[in-house]
């Protein structure tokens, strides 16, 4: 057991506490690989998610980070928050740089120039860097089968440069480049399903996570980094600055994304779907939307449209989970 480990009570979603509560405490390392004192905004879900992910990755990892909030908040020269080897790359080539590092390490090990054979590679990028600008390099790396874990921290817009819409911005959200007004509801396209795109590459591990469920997130990162071959985890990261939400509601809003079915938590292991939390009944989407200023302008008609779409997508996911169950029986 890690000598620095501390015992923390497990966080479980409200209302289903009795059903899912785990009485025994879990152990989490007190080691921090993303040092405190970085420059993230107050209540930043992305910084919390990165911190938790780093705990699960451990010390023996090389982290490759695209441009974006994660990079800017952590590497303001002459300081750095990174306590593990870290490289900042361009948006376009993040997964390609990780591929090169992996191939280089393999060669060094083969030539006996690297005694430590267990070093892992993790990529960290935002939704813009993943679902828009870096998608081609990511697709190539997944297809070639490089051994790394790709973590997309999805705050649903290009936050670092001022809340511009990305293909991961949800329908109806107001952003600076898709502003809501008299003639527009804001974003008019549905959120790109990045986990499904990663899964379509037939990689061994794909998952979704959210720091509102810290143990689930850390378990998935540990699993992803231990996977032989490419793994992809899509992490919903609440951004109070861009979502126009209260800074002390970050954890609650993340939980509501899951409880409403807007962002279900699941894993796809070797093509088999598994729901991480199965709610007896989903909450109405407005419970989640009403806490965020970016959706403040939405009329009932649009809220109903979003509700309908979420139910439809959730049913599709449940069908895949049921199919997996059927195949296993
Ligand atoms: C090719 C290219 N286009 C645009 C930029 C400017 N830029 C830097 S950070 C950023 C936003 C990043 O958004 P995202 O990947 O979603 O991460 P976030 O900041 O939201 O965490 C942009 C557009 C850039 N650095 N390179
Ligand atoms: S803009 Fe959003 S994601 Fe970026 S540091 Fe601030 S809260 Fe975090």
Number of helices: 12
**Kindly, what is the distance between the CA atoms of the first and last residues, rounded to a whole number of angstroms?**
36 Å
Strand content: 15-25%
Largest sheet: 8 strands, mixed
Q: Architecture in CATH?
A: 3-Layer(aba) Sandwich
Secondary-structure element pattern, one letter each: EHEHEHEHEHHEEEHEHEHHEEHH
Q: Based on helices, strands and strand pairing, what is the structural class?
A: alpha/beta
Proportion of residues in helical segments = 25-40%
Q: What characteristic shape results from the CA principal axes?
A: globular
Average pLDDT reading: 93
Question: Can I get a quick summary?
Answer:
The protein has 329 residues and is an alpha/beta fold. The chain has helices spanning 17-20, 45-57, 69-74, 94-110, 127-132, 135-144, 194-199, 214-226, 240-243, 250-259, 286-289, 300-328; strands spanning 6-8, 26-28, 61-65, 86-88, 120-126, 149-154, 180-181, 184-185, 205-209, 231-236, 266-269, 272-275.
Layout of strands and helices, then pairs:
Elements: E1 6-8, H1 17-20, E2 26-28, H2 45-57, E3 61-65, H3 69-74, E4 86-88, H4 94-110, E5 120-126, H5 127-132, H6 135-144, E6 149-154, E7 180-181, E8 184-185, H7 194-199, E9 205-209, H8 214-226, E10 231-236, H9 240-243, H10 250-259, E11 266-269, E12 272-275, H11 286-289, H12 300-328
Parallel strand pairs: 3-4, 3-5, 5-6, 6-10, 9-10
Antiparallel strand pairs: 1-2, 7-8, 9-11, 11-12
Helix pairs in contact: 2-8, 4-6
The protein binds thiamine diphosphate and iron/sulfur cluster.
């Amino acid at each position: 057991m890690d000598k620095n480990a501390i015992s923390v009570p497990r966080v479980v979603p409200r209302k289903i506490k009795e059903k899912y509560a785990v009485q025994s405490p879990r152990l989490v390392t007190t080691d921090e690989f993303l040092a405190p004192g970085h420059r993230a905004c107050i209540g930043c879900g992305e910084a919390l998610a990165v911190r938790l992910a780093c705990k699960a990755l451990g010390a023996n990892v090389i982290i490759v980070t695209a441009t974006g909030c994660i990079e800017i908040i952590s590497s303001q020269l002459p300081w750095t928050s990174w306590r593990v080897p870290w490289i900042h790359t361009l948006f376009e080539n993040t997964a390609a740089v990780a591929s090169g590092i992996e191939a280089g390490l393999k060669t060094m090990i083969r030539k006996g120039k690297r005694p430590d054979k267990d070093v892992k590679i993790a990529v960290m990028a935002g939704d813009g860097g993943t679902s828009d600008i870096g998608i081609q390099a990511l697709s190539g790396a997944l297809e070639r089968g490089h051994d790394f874990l790709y973590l997309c921290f999805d705050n649903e817009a290009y936050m670092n440069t001022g809340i511009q819409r990305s293909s991961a911005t949800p329908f109806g959200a107001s952003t600076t480049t898709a502003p809501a007004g008299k003639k527009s509801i804001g974003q008019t396209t549905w959120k790109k399903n990045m986990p499904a795109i990663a899964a379509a590459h037939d990689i061994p591990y794909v998952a979704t996570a959210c720091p509102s469920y810290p143990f689930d997130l850390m378990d998935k990162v540990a699993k992803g980094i231990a996977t032989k071959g490419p793994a992809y985890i899509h992490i919903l990261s609440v951004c109070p600055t861009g979502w126009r939400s209260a800074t002390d509601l970050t954890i609650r809003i993340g939980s509501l994304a899951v409880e409403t079915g807007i962002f279900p938590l699941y894993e796809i292991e070797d093509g088999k779907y598994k729901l991480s939390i199965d709610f007896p009944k989903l909450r109405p989407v407005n419970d989640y939307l009403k806490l965020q200023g970016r959706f403040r302008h939405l009329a009932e008609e649009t809220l109903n449209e979003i509700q309908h779409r979420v139910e439809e997508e959730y049913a599709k996911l449940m069908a895949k989970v049921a199919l997996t169950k059927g195949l296993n029986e």
